Each structure stands twice: as C-alpha cells, then as structure tokens.
C-alpha cells in the first residue's frame, strides 16, 4: 500500500508541475501511428522459422545443424484515428531493394469475426512448479507450486503474472478507428537471406498521410547460446555478447509429460533468470531501452555485459531429461514523428509517429541429444525459411514466447 501511495503522490506532483504555465509543451495527436517489430531468430527458433517447439526440434533433426541458421521476422501495425477514404482500410510498406521483400508488402485490415473463439475450458492436470534466479541452487521459497486439480475453472492464481514488466503495444485494432497489419492472409512471407532494413522506408494508406523515415539500425546479430551440465547438476547457460543488446532474459520449460498415467500430465517446470518471481509481461517480447534499464536495476533483466547464467540444479532435476530453453536479447528502438517538434512552447500538432523495435532471441534444447546439436544454438548468417507464426499458450493459458510451442 505504501508503494502505491508513493506512486500516486509522484504522479500528482508531476501533474501539478505540468499544469504550471510554461512548464511543459502542449501537443496534439498523433492522428496516425505505426509500429515495426524486428526480430532476429537463431537456434531452434530459426530452424522452425519462429514456430519452434518439438516440431522445430524434429525439423532440425532432418534439416541439419542449426548452428549456421538465423531467420528474420517483421511485424507491422498501422493505426489511425480517421476512417478510410474508400473502405476497407488498406496500405503498403515500401522497402528498399536490399530488404528483399519486393517493392512493398500489403497492409490489410483485420476482419472482426464474432463467435469464432473457443468457449470451452479444459482444466489442466498435474502441477506447475515455478523457479527463478541464476545460481547453482534455487533460492528460498522455491518452487512455488500450483496444483491444477485445486484450481477452479478459469481462475488464475494470484501473483502468477508479472506485475513489474509491462507489455507495450501502442498500435492495435482496439485503439484505432482504422487498422491494418502484416503479415496477413494476403502476404506473409518473411525476409530471407541477406535482407537489410537500412535506408528509406515509406508507408502509404487510404486512411492517413504518408509516413517516411530512414533507418540507420539493421537486424540485430544472432544469439549463440550453449549449455553444459555441471558436476552439481546445475546447468551453465552461456551466450555471445550481442553488440546492440540492452539486456537479456532467459527461461526454460521442462517436465512436461512426465506423469505416470494417461490423465496425469505430471509436473510442468518453469524457470526464469529474473532474481524475483516474474513470469510474463514483456520479458519474452520487445521492450524499450528505458524500461529494460529500469528492470536491470531490479535484477529482473540481466545487464548487456552479462554472458552467462547458471540454471539451478533443482530445476534440472524436476524437469527431467529435456528442457526447452529460450534467451531473449532486448535491442534498440528508433522513433520518428512528423512534423518536427517546434521550438519553445508552441503547440506541437503531431500528424504521425513511427516506432521501430529490435530484439534477438534463440531457442535450444537442454539435455536432449540430437546428434550433439541439442545443447547449443548459434546465430549465424544463413536465414532459415520462416514459417507462419503460431500463437503459444502454456499452462492456465499463460502466453508463452515465440518458439515455446
């Protein structure tokens, strides 16, 4: 309660200061907002083109060593406060030739369909064991055990989701009068080998002015991760230092399918590198550098200088023979707006904003032996053929990051 009161008081002070004449520049808009999410995937995530999971593992077995594979992923969202001049809303993102995406990719509207979402809820069986923190041994109070048999249908245990890590989405269908995105049903082929985003970009639509910006930041370097089981049965996770990374977060999931009976799923073991019990939010997503810097001070995200993390022995023992692991490297962010911000206290009437977010992530199998390839994943330079993105959900419908399913 004390921290909540402190937050309110700080917010109140900020609001009062903003109300003082001449203390802050007023602005309007933006009328149109664009988001471009850029990911570099390596390891099993690249082999499956971002689809990942056991299917990706099987694909890796027959498709070769993932150590030389990376794949690129783009997600584009355009939202506006205005209606389309000639419905439905539509647009195009025009790239330079080096992007290897053709002249442009089509942004199309998302059809709202009623009654197409599943309404039945199958109560999970077994237990969820939560561990956290880097170290040879699990810290006090671990694991937190959630017994699915004792959970009422649809009821999420308190404190399971992250309270400190936001999921940041500024452009969505819900907050836009007109909205389009890519990939979509019309076109979803992701960029291939040798693609580069450097240079000029133009976004044109029938529900807002053209958006023009120039990128000086390209895809992030691929992550190269390896694991080694230590004498005390903990697992040492190591990775390369990505030059533009702002911080790292790791997780593993194991123990699935260890139950003895047909209806007994056994224990699902979930571990994260956070020093506190944080299992969600934007830890598996894109986060602004300022947010990442704040999370580093709280030891929820590992600093960009860190290149190893020890997975506790208890996690390895509870997980069984195989764990699925993921390492996320948060990256830089580029922001653009038009018209330019005026000098002094003149009102800034913003027509549009554009945000480009970067990250690099890898997936690896810990403790599995696929011809010596299961314990490492290296970000190389040969992109794999991307596959259609699959929505990932874990126990209790918990959203899991790319490559977890």
UniProtKB/TrEMBL annotation:
Residues 176-195, 376-395 are annotated as: Disordered. Residues 176-188 have a biased composition (Polar residues). Keywords: Signal. This is Secreted protein. It comes from Sphingopyxis fribergensis. Residues 1-26 form the signal peptide.
């Amino acid at each position: 309660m004390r921290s909540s009161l402190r937050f309110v008081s700080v917010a109140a002070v900020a609001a009062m200061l903003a109300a003082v004449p001449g203390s802050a520049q007023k602005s309007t808009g933006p009328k149109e907002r664009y988001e471009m999410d850029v990911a570099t995937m390596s390891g099993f995530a690249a082999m499956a083109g971002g689809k990942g999971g056991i299917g990706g593992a099987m694909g890796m077995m027959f498709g070769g060593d993932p150590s030389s594979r990376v794949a690129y992923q783009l997600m584009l969202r355009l939202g506006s406060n205005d209606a389309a001049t000639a419905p439905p809303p539509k647009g195009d993102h025009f790239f330079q030739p080096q992007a290897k995406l053709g002249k442009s990719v089509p942004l199309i509207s998302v059809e709202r369909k009623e009654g197409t979402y599943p309404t039945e809820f199958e109560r999970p069986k077994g237990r969820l064991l939560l561990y956290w923190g880097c170290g040879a041994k699990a810290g006090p109070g671990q694991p937190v055990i959630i017994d699915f048999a004792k959970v009422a249908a649809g009821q999420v245990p308190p404190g399971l989701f992250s309270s400190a890590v936001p999921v940041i989405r500024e452009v969505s269908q819900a907050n836009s009068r007109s909205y389009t995105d890519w990939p979509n049903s019309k076109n979803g082929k992701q960029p291939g080998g040798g693609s580069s985003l450097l240079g000029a970009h133009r976004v044109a639509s029938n529900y807002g002015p053209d958006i023009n910006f120039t990128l000086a930041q390209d895809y992030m370097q691929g992550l190269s991760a390896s694991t080694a089981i230590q004498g005390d049965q903990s697992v040492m996770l190591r990775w390369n230092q990505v030059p533009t990374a702002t911080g790292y977060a790791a997780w593993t999931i194991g123990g699935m399918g260890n139950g003895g009976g047909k209806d007994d799923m056994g224990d699902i073991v979930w571990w994260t590198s956070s020093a506190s019990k944080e299992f969600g939010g934007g830890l598996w997503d894109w986060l602004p550098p300022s947010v990442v810097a704040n999370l580093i001070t709280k030891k929820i995200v590992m600093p960009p200088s860190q290149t190893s993390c020890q997975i506790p022995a208890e996690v390895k023992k509870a997980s069984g023979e195989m764990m699925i692991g993921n390492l996320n490297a948060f990256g830089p962010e580029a922001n653009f707006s038009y018209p330019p911000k005026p000098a002094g206290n003149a009102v800034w009437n913003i027509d549009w904003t554009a945000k480009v977010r970067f990250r690099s992530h890898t997936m690896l199998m810990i403790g599995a032996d696929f011809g010596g390839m299961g314990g490492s994943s290296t970000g190389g330079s040969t992109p794999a053929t991307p596959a259609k993105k699959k929505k990932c959900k874990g126990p209790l419908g918990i959203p899991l990051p790319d490559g977890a399913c």
